[in-house]
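Field reference: "sequence" (input) and "structure" (output). Example, Carboxymuconolactone decarboxylase family protein:
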Amino acid sequence: MSGKSFVQITTDVSKALGTLRKEAPDTMAGFGAMSAAALKEGSLSALQKELIALAIGVSSRCDACIGFHVKALIKLGVTREQLVETLEVCAYMGGGPTLMYAAEAIRAYEEFLPRMTKTDAA
C-alpha cells in the first residue's frame, strides 16, 4: 500500500477549502450553489450523478475529487459492483493512466468504507 491516504487528503483539502471560504466567500458560495444544483435529484439519481462525478475525477487524476466523491457515494449506498462498473468505463475511455486512478478509487473506497460504516452504526 502506498503512503497516500484518502482520509488525509480529504481532511487536508477540506481545511484549505475552509480558508478559501473565508478569503473568497462569493466564489465559494457560487461553487457550492452550482454543486447543489448539479447534484440535485432529477432524471438522474443522486447516486448516478456522483458516479459521473467520480468518473470525471478519476479521468482528471484528481486525488481529492476521488476521495470526496467516493465518500459521497458510500453515504448514498453505492455497491462495490456499481463502483467497479463505473471504473471499467473510465478505464475503457481513458486508457492506462485512467486505469491507475481507477485503482486509486478502489483504494479510497476500501479506506473509507469501514470508517464510515462504524460511524453510521454509532
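The helical segments are 6-23, 25-39, 46-59, 63-75, 80-121.
Residues 6-121 form a domain with the AhpD-like fold (CATH 1.20.1290.10).
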